[in-house]
Design a protein that fits this description.
The chain has eleven helices and twelve strands. With 302 residues, it is an alpha/beta fold. The chain folds into two domains: 135 residues, 3-Layer(aba) Sandwich (Rossmann fold); 152 residues, Rossmann fold, CATH 3.40.50.720. The longest helix has 18 residues.
């Protein structure tokens, strides 16, 4: 029996729909236990039309905060008292912090990629980045690259609608003096795409192309001649652990230490939110060990 919960226990959670699949309660509650913090973290099913009532409940119940997942990120951003720079530029929120009834919205999706790159000894500062995709994750990554000092970010997307959306984010940043050089193109402009990758420092795939089971074995980069040993290749996809993009990079000149899958992105975006909630650093290595042991136990039980 868990005797940690008491009349003083603080409440946090994740809101979205569907939500029963979320791994966030396991991750955060492990970290609270690690530090002996008097918090508990739960999952709450919340549709987009329930956001206003849910935010009122966060205030009324004096919850410390919440993570936000689909389909609520944009709606939540519209109803915050304050927004971080990244959340304001992206127009979406994935973390809410409640300070005495004042709700501040943050966006840590981009921080997840930056933290994972740093964990692998890589930096975005002063680099030329090529970003594939213009969806929610891509927008957050583009914004965080700019905030973290990338020299340039070139976004390639399949459709023009997505390009217009991230371009609007870029214009908001430029209005506030963010100096990163931003440019945009369509994936059908293959000659420009491949030349940009050849000349780039970091290639990030923020699309679902290559994900199991929908498009496993596919890659948006068909010309494997663009890969070179200085290029860092990051794929936000974590299932499979090695995508076709990553395998092609490994097979055609990229160094093994420069090819990174997206499993760590989830961990590091959670670490950023944990710090916002508690002021403490997430015990990342201990959490990795715990999750690995848990996964190994599942495998043995099959």
């Amino acid at each position: 029996m868990d005797t940690r919960i008491s009349g003083t226990t603080g409440l946090l959670g994740v809101i979205g729909s569907p939500i029963t699949h979320s791994g966030s309660p396991l991750m955060y509650n492990f970290c609270f236990d690690h530090y002996g913090l008097d918090y508990v973290y739960l999952a709450f099913d919340c549709r987009e039309d329930q956001v206003e009532d849910t935010l009122a409940a966060i205030r009324r119940l004096k919850m410390r905060g919440a993570n936000v997942t689909m389909p609520c990120k944009q709606k939540v951003a519209q109803q915050m008292d304050r927004l971080s720079k990244a959340a304001r530029y992206v127009g979406a929120v994935n973390t809410i912090v409640n300070d005495q009834g004042i709700l501040t919205g943050h966006m840590t999706d981009g921080l997840g990629v930056m933290g994972d790159l740093k964990d692998h000894g890589k930096t975005i500062q002063g680099k030329d980045v090529v970003l594939l995709g213009a969806g929610g994750a891509a927008g957050a990554i583009m914004v965080q690259c700019a905030l973290d000092g990338a020299r340039s970010v070139t976004v390639f997307n399949r459709g023009e609608e997505g390009i217009l959306r991230v371009k609007a984010m870029g214009e908001r940043m430029e209005e506030e003096g963010i100096s990163c050089r931003l440019s945009y193109g369509l994936l059908t402009e293959e000659e420009r795409l491949y030349q940009t990758v050849r000349e780039g420092d970091v290639l990030i795939n923020a699309t679902s192309v290559g994900m199991r089971p929908m498009s496993e074995g596919k890659s948006l980069i068909r010309d494997t001649g663009v890969f070179h040993k200085e290029l860092v290749v990051y794929d936000v996809i974590y299932n499979p652990s090695v995508t076709k993009l990553m395998q092609d990079a490994l097979d055609h000149g990229c160094l093994k230490e420069n090819v990174i899958g997206g499993k760590g992105m989830l961990l590091w975006q959670g670490a950023a939110a944990f710090h916002l909630f508690t002021g403490l650093e997430m015990p990342v290595q201990e959490l990795k060990d715990f999750l690995a042991e848990r996964e190994a136990g599942k495998e043995q039980g099959r």
